[in-house]
Amino acid sequence: MAKSLIIVESPAKAKTIKKYLGPGFTVKASVGHVKDLPEHRLGIDVAHNFAPEYVPIKGKKKLLQELRTEAEKAERVYLAPDPDREGEAIAWHIASELHRTPSDQIYRILLHEITKKGITDALQQPGRIDADKVSAQQARRPSRWPRELACFERASSHSGPRLLLLPRWLPRSLARFWRRADYRLS
């Protein structure tokens, strides 16, 4: 019988799930996010509708290779990061790194409780990655903007006062692009 692969975020969850499921399953942990925007580039592909460009996080390449190897051996792959926006994005990034299409037996399962019943219930109702949750996570994800401009990433009630203070914070490299009107009173 071919094994199924389950990928969760936490090594502790992986250990507990493995105990409940037994030898028909391989359980691995991603230990959080596996891809992120590049550190030294904007990370946005302007030519392709401003699509974000994700790259593997430093130190995760070995883990990603291990997950690919396990996925190739498995009949089914179940992505089980946390059931929230971040978890959905993690599942999406892992799926993109496995180099298998959704029709190649990659499923998303939502583990609301780490009990034998919770796990078996989730395995009986596998779904697909929710593109809306992935988009929501991308919209809320902090970009690699300069620290001085990061306050404008999300709309908040403080955006107005921040806008008034911004010229004082602006580093010299950005200040030359800031239009300034000088007035003299006589």
What does this structure look like?
This protein has 186 residues and is α/β, with parallel strands linked by helices. It has two domains: 4-140, Rossmann fold; 146-186, no CATH class. It is 38% helix and 13% strand. The chain contains seven helices and eight strands. The protein has helices at residues 11-21, 61-73, 85-97, 116-124, 131-140, 159-169, 172-175; strands spanning 4-8, 25-29, 35-36, 44-45, 51-52, 55-56, 76-79, 106-108. The strands form three sheets. The protein has a four-stranded parallel β-sheet, sandwiched between helices. A hairpin with a 5-residue loop joins strand 4 (44-45) and strand 5 (51-52). It starts with a strand and ends in an 11-residue tail after the last helix. The mean pLDDT is 81.
How would you describe the shape?
elongated
In round numbers, the mean pLDDT is: 81
Given this structure, which CATH class of the largest domain is correct?
Alpha Beta
CATH-defined architecture of the largest domain = 3-Layer(aba) Sandwich
CATH fold-type name of the largest domain? Rossmann fold
Largest sheet: 4 strands, parallel
The helix/strand series, from N terminus to C terminus, equals: EHEEEEEHEHEHHHH
By secondary-structure content and strand pairing, the structural class works out as: alpha/beta
Helix percentage range: 25-40%
Q: Numbering strands along the chain, what is their spatial order in the largest sheet? A: 2-1-7-8
Report strand %.
5-15%
How many strands in all? 8
What is the count of distinct domains?
2
Radius of gyration: 22 Å
